[in-house]
Queue: 2 jobs
Job 1
Amino acid sequence: MKTKTTLISLVLFLFCITKSSAQEVLTIEDAMKVALDNNFEIKIAKNNSTISETNVTIGNAGLLPTATANIVDNNSVTNSTQVRQDGTSTTLNNAKNNSLTYGVSLGWTVFDGMRMFARYDQLKELQKLGDAELKRTILVKIGQVNSAYYDLVQQQHQLAALDTTIVISKQRVQLAQNRFTIGKASKLEVLNAQVDLNTDQVGLLRQKESYKNAKILLNQYLARDPQIDFTVTDLVTVDNKLVLIDLMDLAKKQNPALESQIINKRIAELQLKQVKASRYPTVNLTSGYNFSESQSSLGFTSENSSKGFTYGFNASLNIFDGFNQHRNEKVAKLQIENSQIAIDQQNMILNTQLSTAFQTYLTNLELIDLEEDNQAIAKQNLDITLDKFRIGTITTLDFRTAQLNYVNAKVRYSNAQYEAKLSEIALKELAGNINF
């Protein structure tokens, strides 16, 4: 008998384990890791960053020579007549002619006013720009994942609050039914209690719908099947030690939007160097080895061939191009000026966003404490009201008011935590300091 009891307990234990593991418990750390691995926009940004890195070569900058192999084969069949100066002539139909040339040529620009070196530095800056864009994409997507995750936590809290109020509403219906049975209450009280219970159940269904849709949205950010089911943790931890001055200092160093503007200015400066290079001569070295052979059915020479090494150099200098050089340099300088203006503008926008977001953050921190106190007071009020309702010393309207006050207080407390967390995420995103 003891063995049978032990076996049944083991089966029930395994069943409970299987049921509890059916739903994945997704932590915020796991969600961010999945997003970094799977999110489509992050993947595209990673590939774009790799493209920029791949382009940083001395060959792409023009610092290396180029070698070209070529072959040309020309053939013809013609009817030809040749008349010599002594009056004699020669005619040949279907005369075949053929010319074959092949070889290898080498070209190397050894000086172009330092344009190639400026181009190489510009490629490096473009790589940094790609890295900054990757960082921006990651920060934005991780911020979205955090927001969607804690939205789920908030909605989970609201589900719990609605579950609680339905339990209370069911107790109220039962109490009203008992009082009606013993003649201490009217049928109207029972009907009112049932209507309020039905209203609460409708609210719970709506909340379940919102909760499921929020899960689908988070799965989208994680780039996985929308139907994957999971639960989230209940805890919302808000970092209440953020300092505005520290955030502004971090933003100047780490904000990817500002970083991109600084890199764009450096790219514009290197573009000016490349434009100015046109004021200097360009020197190219050339060499090659070629083989040539030709055959003719008619003429003084029936066959000719040659082979050998060729080499040389060429140099060119722009003396006058219709003032285009002056115009191009002026445009390049204006682009540098625009880049500096964009940096100043981005700094102002960044400081404004940080200041307003930080004020919202402080307000939300205060709301957390206030709503936590309100929730405790509303719970105490509901307990007292429920006791009075059981003994019939309070109206159903007063009881319903206390019940709704408690539910609303719980929802507001959850919302305050969520809004404070969103403020924290927004500040850290602006500072380029989200941990992932």
Job 2
Amino acid sequence: MVDLAIKGNKVLTSSGIQKAVVLVKDGLIVDIRAELPENFSGDVLDIQDSVLMPGVIDPHVHINEPGRTDWEGFDTVTRAAIVGGLTTLVDMPLNSSPVTTTAQAFDQKIAATSGQLHTNVGFWGGLVPGNTDEIERLIDKGVLGFKAFLTHSGIDDFPNVTEADLRKAMPIIARHGLPLLVHCELSTDEKLAIGDNRSYQNYLSSRPKEWEDTAIAMMIRLCEEHNCRTHIVHLSSANSIEPIARAKQKGLPLTVETGQHYLFFNAEMIQDGQTQFKCAPPIREKENNDQLWEALRSGIIDFVATDHSPAPPDLKQMPTGNFMTAWGGIASLQLALPVLWTAARQRGFDVTDMARWLSEKPAQLAGLSHRKGRIVVGYDADLVVWSPDDSFVVSAEDVLHKHKITPYLGEELYGIVEQTYLGGVKVFEDGEMVMLKAGKVIYQQNDRLSETSKKRTD
């Protein structure tokens, strides 16, 4: 017997948005039809004119546990995710302690998830100098790919790699068909920022576009040389759009994301001392960011991810407003969908674009495109119901991140999440969590799901 039927006038199927009924059984989408079957005896949800979309997938999240749970943690971040319609997260390897650069550290991270996951979570392994021998051990553990920095990560335990390090690692990663995600900034020793440490323009000048452009050019070259899936995270420099387009035209396995904050805010809007806006690479000028929108429209940029990277108020230098010493990271996970939709609707995009940028394309990066990211028969029934025409004002009381510091406070955003489903089970509805601890760990190997542990079968 089918467990659930969701019927609505705006169901985002692979054929576009249409009136449809989605039938769910044992956590999977088993049918999509025009009308409810006769004599249907399961539960029926009529969402009317709300949108039914695949759950949001964010492959760029800093959860920080174990070791820095005072910054964030599995409990708070996955609660915030579910409320925001996010059904799958992929955790970055650097902000926990220990960092996820060894198989042993990965085991510690998995142990820390126990009893805390309210949405599904997968993991990237870390690539740092000297851990080449750990790459295949981490792959055996089930990481979805690897993350590297080309400049200081902000965490001393996660140093940046050099071109020589990449040349050792990329052939191994390529052999397994996994992606290498890269923070692309190649810094120089030249002191580029002088003057007032509270000045945003001073901070912006300290991380110029050239840092990104040089790094991206190197990664394009190495991508072609090693035929290794290469993913550029949080693109902010519009100067690199054309080289990326040429690389894609050549058929290189290159993908690119940008962040919501580069599309929603512009440097001209940021006042001195507002360190809640600090991120790296920095939010650039409107002219630059308009070009990012056009690259997203054309598909040169594949999708959008939050790079949720929270920190306590003292690390964000909220009392002093010192941009040069503040932690570089923007907290926004819960608002991923409404932030992007609010900005996109003003530019003429529609909800089908949201599904592509927030669900389908991120699933491809994480190796989950055969079962997540679309409303298709046989796929996991990870779903979000939301109202694109309703708005709300972001308040600290509504933010479920561990810390309420976010540049979106006070912003009116469109797109209210009404319900979230994990495997066909309703876990959030109308502002309330209706089921806790329904999330699972996502492993790369055979794409098996497990709540706390994975046994390898050969």
